[in-house]
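Quick one, probably user error.
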């Protein structure tokens, strides 16, 4: 990316920040090439929407405001009641200009949302096993789209869905769509 090249030429560059940025580029490429290449024309955020269809009458808390969160907000904002929690106030302001959603400034209020979609990746656990068990006991749904996972011990079950479990859903969806396309073609629907 052009901006990164300019940063490398800057006298203010910092090797720690440089390693962080390069790791982010590497992780982004890994996710695209290893996990998202099967999506063809289906946007990732569309598949999140499809996955959350049964929660259409629920309040959804989205954690983060980066590219994945922005794409998800764009897909969900008309059908779902969205609330966003992010430390990046500038990004929240930009998103607020385009989409309708509430802002949750206090992260400790997460327990009041029946559906949580996490897009914040962090190698240090942000969600401890105790909190995840509390969500589970209350019947809350947690979709963790972060990579690396920020769940302590990568705890997961039928209400706490990991990135890997979501990828299985994507593969199944893509496979089912391919079968439907083949079936429609055999019926002559494309002629």
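Nope, works fine. Designed sequence:
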């Amino acid at each position: 990316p052009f901006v990164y090249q300019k940063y490398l030429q800057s006298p203010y560059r910092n090797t720690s920040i440089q390693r962080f940025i390069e790791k982010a580029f590497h992780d982004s490429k890994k996710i695209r090439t290893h996990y998202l290449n099967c999506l063809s024309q289906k946007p990732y955020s569309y598949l999140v929407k499809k996955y959350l269809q049964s929660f259409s009458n629920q309040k959804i808390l989205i954690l983060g405001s980066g590219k994945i969160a922005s794409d998800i907000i764009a897909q969900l904002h008309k059908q779902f009641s969205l609330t966003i929690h992010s430390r990046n106030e500038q990004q929240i302001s930009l998103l607020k200009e385009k989409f309708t959603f509430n802002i949750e400034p206090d992260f400790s209020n997460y327990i009041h949302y029946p559906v949580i979609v996490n897009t914040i990746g962090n190698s240090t656990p942000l969600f401890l096993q105790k909190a995840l068990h509390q969500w589970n006991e209350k019947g809350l749904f947690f979709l963790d789209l972060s990579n690396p996972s920020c769940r302590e011990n990568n705890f997961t079950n039928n209400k706490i869905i990991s990135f890997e479990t979501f990828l299985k859903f994507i593969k199944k969806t893509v496979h089912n769509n391919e079968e439907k396309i083949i079936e429609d073609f055999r019926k002559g629907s494309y002629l």
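DSSP finds seven helices and six strands in the chain.
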